[in-house]
Amino acid sequence: MFQRNIGDVILEVQGISLSFGAMRVLNNISFDIRQGEIRSIIGPNGAGKSSMLNVINGVYHPQEGTIIFQGERRAEMKVHEAAAQGIARTFQNIALFKGMSTLDNIMTGRNQMMKSNLLQQAIYWGKAQKEELKHRKVVEEIIDFLEIQAIRKTPVGRLPYGMQKRVELGRALAAEPEILLLDEPMAGMNVEEKEDMSRFVLDINDEFGTTIVLIEHDMGVVMDLSDRVVVLDYGVQLADGSPDEVRNNQAVIDAYLGVAH
Amino acid sequence: MIYREAGEFKSSYQADQAILTIRQDRWFIWGLMAFAFLVIPAISSEYWLTTIMLPFLILGLAALGLNILTGYAGQLSLGTGGFMATGAFAAYKLATAFPELNIVIVILASGLITSGVGILFGVPSLRIKGFYLAVATLASQFFLIWMFNKFGWFTNYSASGVISAPPMSVFNEILVTGPHATPVAKYLFVLTLVVLLTLVAKNLVRSNIGREWMAVRDMDIAAEIIGIPMLSTKLKAFAVSSFYCGVAGALWAFLHTGSVEPLAFDVNRSFQVLFMVIIGGLGSIMGAFLGAGFIVLLPILLTNAPHWFGLNIAVDTISHIEFMVFGILIIFFLIVEPHGLARLWQITKEKLRLWPFPY
User: Fold this and answer.
1) pTM for the full model?
2) Domains and CATH numbers, chain A
3) Which residues of chain A are at the B interface, by a Cβ-Cβ cutoff of 8 Å?
4) What is the tens place of the pLDDT at every residue in B125-142?
């Protein structure tokens, strides 16, 4: 086991409850995420994992509870503001821009850092061009890192599933986020693809020091990668702790395997 | 064999981000430019320049504007005619209120005024999309045309509601509008403007704003989560698109017809431009002009074709046949290539890379 470099709490979720009408999706959830750790959220289908990510991401606004991000209580915000604060994510069902090339998809990830205005872009000279080249260089580094050089100019709609997942990871990475939310990055992959993806997740965490929040159904992957794990079931928090603690928690075992009556 | 990128190495990202990365493409475009600027004015008759090339270029520009909005940013619009009318009337008001203004400034300023109107009518796009947005923009189409008919101020209280372009010139000597302007001067003026604006459009769609537009088009929720603000991105698309439509409207009124009434920009015009974009290819700069060529040139070709073959058919029969053949061709092209002529061109180029070998 290599040296983990885990810092202070970067994001804290306190007593979050979220309902859609009479449906209570999240019920009084509290946990924290430390700088530089890999934090997993697991649970059976419909447990509220993706909803939790959407709350962290600012897409859903919980009825109760607070989120403390980088030491400050976060006010209710618009969807596009999360990216500016340094939260990037990938999606359970791939949400790439299908008509654009791999390169352009990853370039859009850097839209926050593009400062040239419409007129400068219209003449494509000076600032706009310099900026374009500067960001292209960073994007090329990400392309190298994810080993997708060969599909640089291919429209992503034509790529196989595993590659699309990788491009989506690249797009999230391009924003140089503080926290990276990965919603089932390994769903539907074979063993080799899962191994590749696990390697990328560990490398991102190790090389860039990015904090990662991971939702995943493959327990082997979760237990190997995570520093700490939160378990949800029907919107209720069952357990929170290291992989070993969670694995031996009776409530978790009951939720996954069922209880004898 | 002949058309391929093999052997052309790029050693900088700048070279890789150029508009045309293949040598043959660059030759083709330079050749096309030389042909358009030098050969066409020299060999074309007045009829060709004024009734074929001018409408082709101007409607191509309008189609380019709509393509930015619909093809790149994914916002369906049926308000093109209304925006063209706005451009035409803005140019007329500017030219009559400030006669000393240069025509280039008048036309660009009327484009900017249309931008403002476009932004106003683009606001509903935050809440509604697809066909519903099309209906909302249709409302703007009817409203704008009604407004120009209703209020005499827009036509300087002309009794017929028709506006006529005052004679104006570039470089203080070459007349480009009015009855005494030569077709060649008009053609070159429009061509220059269209080429420059096309270059600007190309630059926009390969920059950050273009990527943001396409991101909103392909998946708006993901676009918003990676930090693209919906409203301002969509409004920028409306602004740029309306600018192009406004300039096209001003050129149509001032350089093509010379005098125009609001009805010239009714909903049929919107549909005509929309068909150009669909047939030419959504999300393609070249597609706008291919579509404009198809819609403008084909009917003229069909009208004249029997004559060239020495067939003597009555004029009304010809016009009926023209409608039928035109309709059949539209359906044919949409079945063969639903992504438009631009895709057909792209496929041709991909085939040409391998030609004469099968793979």
Assistant:
1) 0.91
2) 1-86+177-261 (3.40.50.300), 98-175 (no CATH)
3) 57, 59, 78-84, 88-89, 91, 95-100, 104, 107-109, 111-112, 114, 116, 118, 121-124, 128-129, 131-133, 136-137, 140, 171-172, 175
4) 888 888 999 999 999 999
